[in-house]
Design brief:
alpha+beta; four-stranded antiparallel β-sheet; 192 residues; elongated
């Protein structure tokens, strides 16, 4: 199992240079690895069909998926795919969880938010002191009427940050997030 995890991690770190222009030569396992993080971008009509497809149908699904998002379809590059692959490389290098069970960065809360919305415009980070856990607040302000905040807390003390609060109505907040941050952290997160 450890060898499989290490190979998976290497594949995801290599993704920024992988494009669907090379999909014709990729194995089914490689195609599945390219597909997995796309769950955060999928429209409702794209969900649930991929697993039952043949290898060639999977290649076509991935090509159509990115063609649908191509902002400049008449050019040879797909800027949306390239940007997503850059972000994917970033989250897998930055937010991967090591330890007994390896979790690629795209499967973490911070990785998910980053892949959905891009890098935050502003961040606030606090190291844990006393009984306060380390936390980070990401703020997205560009092109929005109301800034969105996402607060992540390292609940283990070993770098496993989970989303505990957001003012984004699509994201649930934990009822105990104030206790997790402590009074000072709670005020800092709200005032940020």
């Amino acid at each position: 199992m450890m060898v499989r995890c290490a190979c998976w991690a290497l594949l995801f770190l290599a993704l920024p240079t992988t494009s669907l222009g090379q999909a014709g030569s990729l194995t089914e396992a490689s195609l599945d690895s390219l597909y997995a993080p796309l769950v955060y971008l999928m429209h409702e009509d794209e969900q649930g069909t991929y697993p039952s497809l043949s290898v060639e149908e999977k290649r076509n699904f991935l090509r159509r998926f990115w063609a649908r998002r191509d902002p400049k379809p008449k050019t040879s590059k797909n800027e949306a795919e390239e940007q997503f692959n850059r972000w994917l490389g970033t989250v897998n290098r930055t937010f991967a969880e090591r330890g007994a069970s390896e979790v690629p960065g795209w499967r973490t809360d911070r990785g998910r938010i980053y892949l959905e919305y891009g890098p935050p415009d502003i961040t606030l980070s606090r190291r844990g002191m006393g009984t306060t856990l380390p936390f980070s607040v990401w703020k997205y302000t560009q092109g929005r009427d109301r800034p969105r905040k996402y607060c992540f807390v390292d609940i283990t003390g070993f770098g496993k940050y989970v989303l505990v609060y957001s003012n984004d109505p699509r994201e649930p907040s934990r009822s105990d997030w104030r206790q997790l941050l402590g009074d000072d952290g709670y005020e800092d997160a709200l005032d940020f």
